[in-house]
Amino acid sequence: MNSPEQWDRLMCPTADSSWIAREGGYDPLLERSRAARFAISNGFFGVRGVRAIHRGGRWAATSRTLVAGVFDTAGEEPGIPKLAVAPDWLKVRILLQGEPLIHHVDDEARQERILDMRRGVVIGKGDLSNESAFGVKMRSFHMASLSQRAIGMQIILLEMEQGAIEVTLEASIDAVDVGLLSERSEHGLSVWRTRSSGTRLAVAAAVTLQIDRQLIPFTVCGLSQWSWKWTSTPGQVICLTRMVAMTRAGKDDIDPARAAQEALASAQTLGWPALVAVHERAWQDRWACSEVEVEGDPSAQRALRFALYHLNGAANPADEHVSIAAKALTGDDYHGHVFWDTEIYLLPFYTLTWPEAARALLMYRFNTLAGARQKAASMGWQGALYAWESADTGAETCPLQVVGPDRKLVDVNCGKQEQHISADVAYAVWQYWHATGDDAFLREAGAEILLETARFWASRAKLESDGRCHIRGVIGPDEYHESIDDNAFTNVMARWNIRRAIETAALLRTSWPESWRRLSGQLKIDEAELQRWGRVAETIATGFDSNTGLFEQFAGFFTLEDIDIAAYAGRSVPIDVVLGRERIQRSRIVKQADVVALLALLPEEFPRGSAAANFEYYASRCGHGSSLSRAMHGIVAARLGQSEVALDFFRQTSAIDLDDTHVATEGGVHIASLGGIWMIAVLGFAGVSFAGDHLCLAPALPAAWKSLSFPMQWRGRHLRIEINDASAGVRVTLETGDPLKLAINGELFALSSAEPLVVNSKTQAGVA
């Protein structure tokens, strides 16, 4: 039997409040947003934050479990695969004298929900009562194991306030809203199947109840329900413990039920104290590899920890057939589909702190190449055009219509026209390989992605009478403007993609000739085709004006109506709602970072002196109608030395999920924005970048930040970087790995594990 001391330790959150997200009371208008914020996830399954006891009505449990890779097409939009809702394994109901617990206004002040980000757990406590004012004191705990990803665990502690009360406690696994087909059902084990793909989900569960540390046998009331009934005594302590194991399998794979039962048996043998301990050690390891520490700005520190908590919980390095959706596993907005967000806003974090997770995410793109090839072919082009919205197969899953901000149906052209996705995937592949030196990945998967996406662009860009190659009829990141020609972001990224593919072909020929023979034969690529690609890259229109130093966002952009967006600064709705869809399309107002995003990703493409001009021009015309936008602006502002401007973008990005005024969080956290918070800190304020074969730093902290420190990985090495604003000092420690050279503010230094490298503003020269 477990002791009260063990329970107390379990329910005691981390003492440092910067690791805690806390919510007291109850507000039904904010409950769904808070459920997303307090979600737990381990990359295989996620559970939205939930109140431990089901009370019905507006106090109904908001638990929602989502399992990565389980998509189905059932619902109101036929043909659109959606991430299926898994059975609710956390449901608990209590009756006192036959009356259920209900909402009492007097109970609200004693309700509290705590997300312990350091430990990766949710803790709840409160006083609960029924209509007759019979009550219990409750503490709860639940987690999704980071060390054994199939396992979820729930513990509820109850203390009876009155004696001689008839108590009924029911624990169940609720599948009412699942929508999956039941394939097998027995007590403690269920297997479900999707209608479309035949993917199967098995759930095995074990539930125990202790009263005053004595095990009490349950009465089986159903295949997925456990029930107990007894008469209370004052101060009586009840402990409900539930473990579940969830496993996923394809239609042709072995029965997932056996794997679920084996995972559950292993967890039961380990016992919950040890299960919690290994879970907490796994989180400790993740924090050691990723924690960003800020001195002097508590709100920034809290924002970074919240972002890193969700980022670390979103990935599963063991699964190369799933990626991270726009809401990760914290909600099912966008149906659990994968966008460019993953490669552009998330991969930098994983590449530099968790390369195993980054590799798995890129392998998802490799494993969905067939869908990308099919999409390109269906539209009359060669190579691979990745889906704008991707699910399990890589086929395009973008809906044809959605409800717009004005509640009217809007045609969606992104699935056909937002083609920069292929260059975005290629960009992430190259950045990963460049930062990790994972040659095996490049040979076995990355090179094929680079070559096939380059082949797409070479077929997509058409040579016209002006001697330039043009890409017409696209949508760039700024989705206010559709069916445009020569979007600068798209064209410059396409050119970059083609050049990296040609470089990759040359590298394979030189370093791994057998790999090149195999791959070039498989893809039927010859020297003549590579030369054609090179000509496309040399002649593609970019929209750059050497006189002004500006990239024109797309052909004709500078002729559109120039509206002063500052005149609408006090608006409470998106600018496209204020001005109307038609006028916004005729204006120079942009939805989100477009040329600014290009500046963030490929600063080397901007001739000297033009970066600031482009940032000033486009930042003043951006409506930030996407949660992705401010992060890109923050990175660029920091790199340009505008640290306070960047800090403002950092705070606005942080507020999206942490501020209760943003009800848009109810569909899940904005995982790309959370990745953007890390990017502003590390790629912006610390100035981390890759140039040639060197890791580079160019720090510029905002005034409030006294210091910034973080770990990162670079080509098999583990580094710790510390920036002290007061002394303009940088300290870099090589914790493991071979010596290397790195550039700090443009000067080259040598670093070995013998001693840290310390550089301050008075340093005159580096070590070549």
Automatic annotation (TrEMBL):
Active site per the UniProt annotation: E479
Domain Glycoside hydrolase family 65 C-terminal span(s) in chain numbering: 690-750
Keyword presence, Ribosomal protein: no
One annotated GO molecular function: maltose phosphorylase activity
Domain of life: Bacteria
One matching Pfam family: Glyco_hydro_65C
Full protein name: Maltose phosphorylase
Organism annotation: Paraburkholderia dioscoreae
